[in-house]
Amino acid sequence: MRLLPLIFKRQLASYACTPSTYLSVAVFLVLCAALGLHSNQWMERDSSDLQAFFELHPWLYLLLIPGLSMHLWSDEHSTSFSNMLKTLHITSTERVIGKFLAAWVVCSVALLLNFPLVIAAHYLGTPDDGVIASQFLASWLLAGSYLSVGCFICALTHQRVVIFLLTMGLLLTLSGLFSVMDALEHQAPIWIVDSMMKLDPIARFSSMDNGKITLHDGLYFISMIFAFLSATIVTLNYKNS
C-alpha cells in the first residue's frame, strides 16, 4: 500500500482540474438548499435539526455520484499513466482504494459546504448539534456506499456515458427498494420483506438521519463499501490476467 498516496493525490488533482467537478458540487448544493427550503418550509417551523435538507441527499447523490464516477478511471488510457503503472508496479488494490478515497474526499467537501445551513439553524433557533452531527455522518456514509457502487461500474466499462447511466440506474434501483417492499408488504412472505428491507440503504439512512446512530447501521454502510470495492478489485484483476 506504499503507492496508495500517489494514486490518491493524482486522482484528487484530476478532480480539482476538471470543471465538471465544480459544476456537480454546485448543482448538488443549490438543489439541496432550494428544494429543502421550498418543499419543506423549514424556516416556518421550529426544527431542531436539518432533516428537511438531509432527507433529499439520497436522491441528490443520484446526480453527484455518477458525475464523479465518470472520472474515476478517466486516466486509464493515458500513456503516461500506463507507463507509471508498469514502472511502479501499482496493484489493483492500490488503484481502487486510492481513487475511491479521492472521490469520497470530494463528496466530503460537498457535504461540508452545507455548513452555512448549520449556522442558519443556530441563528433561527436552538438546534440539537448531536442530531445534526448524526445527519452529516449518515450522509457521508451513504455517499461512500454509493461511490463504491460507481467504482464497481467503472471496472466494467470505460465509456463515460455508460458509466453515468449504469451508476444512476443501479443507485436508483437500490433507492427504490423501500417503495417496492412497501407495495409487496401484503403479497410476499414477511421474512422476504424483512430481509429486503434490511438491504435498503434509504431505510438505514433515514434511521441515522433521525439522530438514531447505531453500530448496526454504520456497519451496514461500511460492509457495502467493502463488498463493492472488493468486487471492483476482483474484476480488475480478472480483466488484467
Describe what you observe in this structure:
With 241 residues, the protein is mostly helical. The model has no long low-confidence stretch (mean pLDDT 77). Helix 4 runs parallel beside helix 8. The chain has helices at residues 4-16, 19-40, 51-54, 57-69, 79-88, 92-112, 115-124, 129-156, 160-175, 177-183, 190-198, 201-209, 215-240. The chain is elongated, with a radius of gyration of 19 Å. The two termini are 20 Å apart.
Annotation keywords:
single chain, mainly alpha, 78% helix, elongated
Q: How much helical structure, as a percent, in the residues?
A: over 70%
| Beta-strand content | under 5%
Count the E strands. Answer: 0
Based on secondary structure, the structural category is: mainly alpha
Average pLDDT score? 77
**Multimeric state:** single chain
Total number of helices: 13
Q: How many distinct domains?
A: 1
List the secondary-structure elements in sequence, H or E: HHHHHHHHHHHHH
Taking all Cα atoms into account, the compactness measure Rg is 19 Å
What summary fits the major beta sheet? none
Shape: elongated
Q: Note poorly predicted spans.
A: none
The first-to-last residue Cα distance is: 20 Å
